[in-house]
Amino acid sequence: MIRVVLPYHLRNLAKVGSEVALEVTGPVTQRSILNELEARYPVLSGTIRDHVTQKRRPLLRFFACETDHSYDDPDTPLPEAVASGAEPFFVVGAIAGG
C-alpha cells in the first residue's frame, strides 16, 4: 500500500483526507503513483502533471524520505520505504514570490 500526502487544495478538490492509500502494481515510481492517483481520482488529472506532456506542474514538488525527487526521471524507482508504505510520497505545493 502506497501512502500519498497531497497539498490542501488538491485534497479539497479530490475530497480526501490528509493521506491517500493506493495499490500500485509493478515498480513504485512517480509515474506509477501518479497514474494510479489520477485513475482513482479523475478530478486530479491535469492538476499535478500536464495533460499532454505528463511533466510535473511548475509549482508542485515531489518528496520521499526527506529527499526532493522533483527532477528525477519519472520512471526511477522510489525508495523501498515508500514502496513498502513505511514512508509517504509527498506532493507539495511550492511557495513562490518575493
In short:
With 98 residues, the protein is α+β, with helices and mostly antiparallel strands. 22% of the residues lie in helices and 20% in strands. The protein has one domain (2-93): Beta-grasp domain (Ubiquitin-like (UB roll), Roll), CATH 3.10.20.30.
Question: What is the strand and helix layout of this fold?
Answer:
Blueprint: E1 2-5, H1 8-14, E2 19-22, H2 30-40, E3 60-64, E4 67-68, H3 80-83, E5 89-93
Parallel strand pairs: 1-5
Antiparallel strand pairs: 1-2, 3-4, 3-5
DSSP E strands, number = 5
Q: Please tally the helical runs, counting DSSP H or I stretches of 4 or more residues.
A: 3
Strand/helix succession: EHEHEEHE
Order of strands in the sheet with most strands: 2-1-5-3-4
Gyration radius over CA: 12 Å
What would the average pLDDT be, to the nearest integer?
94
CATH top level label: Alpha Beta
CATH architecture: Roll
